Amino acid sequence: MKTEDRSGAAASNTAAGKPDSQERFDSIRGRIGLGLGPLALALMLLTAVGLEWEQRALAAVLCLMIVWWVTEAIPLAATALLGIVLCVFLGVGDEDTVFGAFGNDTIFTFLGGFVIARSMTVHGLDKRIALRVLSVGGVVRSPVRTVIAFGGIACVISAFVSNTATVAMLFPIGIGIVGAVSAISTEKGGQDLHHSRWSAALMLMIAYAASIGGLLTPIGAPHQLIGRDLVEEQTGETVNFVEWVLLFAPIVLVMFVVLCIVLLRLNRPEVRELIGAEEYVAEQRAELGSFSRGEANTCVSFAVAVVGWTLPGISSLFLGDDHEAVTWMHAHLTEGVAAIVAATLLFLLPLGGSRGTGRSGWRAPTLTWSEAVKIDWGVILLFGAGTVVGSLSSETGLAETMGTSLADHLGVSSLVSITVLAAVAGLLISETTSNTASAGIVVPIVVPIAVAMDVNPLIPGLVATAAAGYGFMLPVSTPPNAIVYGSGMVPMTRMIRSGFVFDLIGVTVLVVGVLAMAPLVGL
């Protein structure tokens, strides 16, 4: 599972923390937003007199939340909690309706997925997978193959593990390879590769591939689960695990190929061979030792989760939605149930004698509670608030009013134009604020527009959700960007140029891909 909050980026930056320029930008943006948020709330309450009180109050709360999310005046989760409390205080909804949203099935999908991902990190399973791929004969001898291999690893792992955690795991491996190769190069009178086009391409590949890889599965990023839930809430349609994968897998594959071409064309490696890289990878693998019981147990837990997530969708494909077994699974084997069952296994499967025994005499579990609670609870709070706002938007009629008004003002009337609007809006907002907040801002806007224009709202809603995971131009766009920028190997101009080109091509691939694939998947 991806956890995604820019406030955690600095903590994850294992190099040198945030650069001074980024610190100043964040500080100025936060101070401005702190005052603008309450002002936006007050202005909406005082001026939107044409709306019913519930709609006006909810619109005012949304204005405050959007301003504080974009500027990150206070932590995103704190803004989310304040927003739902204001909904009760201003009479938009009662406390049972508002706080009841935290019983959503997706909350438990988050919990289970986060716990499984935590176990992977604790036992080093994700690092072992990465080093195993890099140790395949000849991969890290070639600078081009090394960049592509790191990208492939980041894509696959981030489909199930936090993009920030994926980058934090691959980042030191990449730094180590650059350091080992650069030391040998300088000893022989060659170039210091720490500040080369190749090292910049490697760092950018780690960050960008981790961001696009999460699109492969719905549980790959919090903003995707939030966006999907908002779409389902407002349309009444569902997008199951298998349908999501069938829809986005071809898009992710094309985007990865495009990413490799863009990065290697714009950052052409200066060297033809990386001397010393294979030795470094071998040393790192030796330090991991043999495959542990903890890693094996984590694999079992993960396999159970994947089976639970995919079985209802696969059964629907072969048996049909009306089959008794399929109906039972859709009702009882939800994604949240599967995630919690799989995560609970980590507390039941023993490690053997490696951790000793507890007071009761039971052997130590694969994951202890003190290890499990270190997941990102802020994302869970953020999701709950997004669900509340989306539900209240529909119940109060604000979503319909807003969609009709925006459609008239923007002049969008076709499925293609609304889908393009959704992609561009998601991309632009994600460049300056959290991906999770971007989905919460854009999806409730574009879905009502689609409904008002009587076109399929699932397509622009899913495109807006996916585009909210973009943001490749700036260090502040995503935690992965901030981590690799802090290495000192990626000049700002190189990140902006590479990110801008990939943004343009990536959005085009996304829009065309979803419009083409959605009918084939049955959406």
From TrEMBL:
NCBIfam families per the UniProt record, alphabetical: dass
GO cellular component labels: plasma membrane
Topology versus the membrane: Multi-pass membrane protein
InterPro entries assigned: SLC13A/DASS
Protein name from the UniProt record: Sodium-dependent dicarboxylate transporter SdcS
Family stated for the protein in its record: Belongs to the SLC13A/DASS transporter (TC 2.A.47) family. NADC subfamily.
GO annotation terms (biological process): carboxylic acid transmembrane transport
UniProt cross-references to Pfam families, sorted A to Z: Na_sulph_symp (PF00939)
Main location: membrane
Native source organism of the sequence: Streptomyces hainanensis
Chain ranges passing through the membrane: 32-51, 58-91, 97-117, 138-161, 167-186, 198-221, 241-264, 299-319, 331-351, 372-390, 410-429, 436-453, 459-478, 499-521
Subcellular location: Membrane
Keywords: Membrane, Transmembrane, Transmembrane helix
UniProt region (Disordered), positions on chain: 1-22
